[in-house]
Automatic annotation (TrEMBL):
It comes from Amphimedon queenslandica (Sponge). Its EC number is 5.6.2.4. GO terms for biological process: double-strand break repair via homologous recombination. The lineage of its organism: Eukaryota, Metazoa, Porifera, Demospongiae, Heteroscleromorpha. This is DNA 3'-5' helicase. It catalyses: Couples ATP hydrolysis with the unwinding of duplex DNA by translocating in the 3'-5' direction. GO terms for cellular component: chromosome; cytoplasm; nucleus. GO terms for molecular function: 3'-5' DNA helicase activity; ATP binding; DNA binding; four-way junction helicase activity. InterPro entries: DEAD/DEAH_box_helicase_dom (IPR011545), Helicase_ATP-bd (IPR014001), Helicase_C-like (IPR001650), P-loop_NTPase (IPR027417). It is an enzyme of class 5 (isomerase). SUPFAM superfamilies: P-loop containing nucleoside triphosphate hydrolases. It comes from the Eukaryota.
Length: 326
């Protein structure tokens, strides 16, 4: 049985052109063997691929069609980014919750015409339509939790999800391609002046950069200063109309519209995208997979070490060397 299980998992991965890492294969095999699983792996390891392959792997193993995996996430950015990525791979993914206004997508979810569903906790708790949906015969009662987590988070998640003797699969969060620098905090005008000068000189050669802020107001202040110092260079080519698709600097916060969020994710994820700098809050800090981010700044300290690891780990997913700017 184990040989058949491994064969089905490897075939599911090969269909999408993936060669599974050791911990990815271990997590999928352990879960499909009937165990609750807690996966704690470094940012950029490929945790999302573990649950994304499960529908196809289950279909192959059970010789059926229609397996569905549900991913509960509080982050709209993650849901939108992951949905777009997996749809391109041929995995039928959809999300429901804040920002989902497409009634066709919601109907598709209710009828189970998907393989991978992203849903917000608020939708599960507050919307009876989705609670009843999970009780329907269409949806399977299986649980898997994936995260970059501390021991405290591990205990809380296991207790909250009532995981029964969960198998812990993980490894150290060290990322050898990340180089950390601790710098004195300059005046915001001075910092923005240096960023604007380099962006003007380098243009599209400027490395993709995320500047994490504590809140929306901080993002707004820095964006206004950068806009003033960049002038016509806020877009590429310079002097171009200030449309989203030409922006070199954008904000990503909970307050951003769906249109802006989609534009940021689309441009920043595209290797040829124009967007060079994202001013972001924690809303952009978890789960967003952009391979070629090279520089990350924290303008103020994160609220926890866990958040620090998560946000600094947004960079270097292609394993190339990068600079983390403290």
């Amino acid at each position: 049985m184990e040989d058949k299980l491994e064969k089905c998992v490897l075939e599911a991965a090969s269909r999408f052109g993936f060669s599974l890492k050791e911990k990815q294969l271990e997590a999928i095999m352990t879960f499909m063997s009937g165990n609750d699983v807690f996966v704690s792996l470094p940012t950029g390891y490929g945790k999302s691929l573990i649950y994304a392959l499960l529908p196809v792997a289950f279909d192959l193993f059970k010789e059926q069609y229609g397996s569905i995996v549900i991913c509960v996430s509080p982050l709209v950015s993650l849901m939108m980014d992951q949905k777009a990525k997996f749809l391109l791979m041929g995995i039928v993914a959809e999300f429901v919750g804040e920002g989902q206004l497409d009634s066709t997508a919601i109907e598709k979810v209710l009828h189970g015409d998907i393989q991978l569903l992203y849903i917000s906790p608020e939708s599960l708790i507050c919307n009876p339509m989705y609670r009843n949906m999970l009780l329907s015969p269409i949806y399977k009662n299986k649980l898997v939790a994936l995260a970059t987590a501390t021991k405290h988070t591990f205990r809380i998640v296991c207790q909250s999800l009532s995981l029964r003797e969960p198998v812990l699969i993980g490894c150290l969060p060290d990322r050898s391609n990340i180089y950390y620098e601790v710098q004195p905090l300059p005046e915001i005008e001075e910092f923005c002046e240096e960023i604007a000068k380099e962006l003007k000189e380098m243009g599209m050669e400027y490395p993709k950069t995320i500047i994490f802020q504590q809140n929306y107001s901080d993002c707004q202040v820095m964006y206004r200063i950068l806009s003033r110092k960049l002038g016509p260079y806020i877009t590429f080519p310079p002097h171009h109309p200030k449309h989203l698709e030409f922006a070199m600097v954008m904000k990503y916060t909970r307050a951003s519209t769906v249109e802006v969020k989609e534009s940021v994710l689309r441009s920043f994820s595209d290797p040829k995208g124009i967007l060079r700098i994202v001013l972001a809050t924690t809303a952009f800090g978890m789960g967003v997979d952009v391979a070629d981010v090279r520089v990350i700044y924290h303008w103020h300290p994160p609220s926890s070490l866990e958040q620090y690891v998560q946000e600094s780990g947004r960079a270097g997913h292609d394993n190339k060397r990068l600079r983390y700017g403290g």
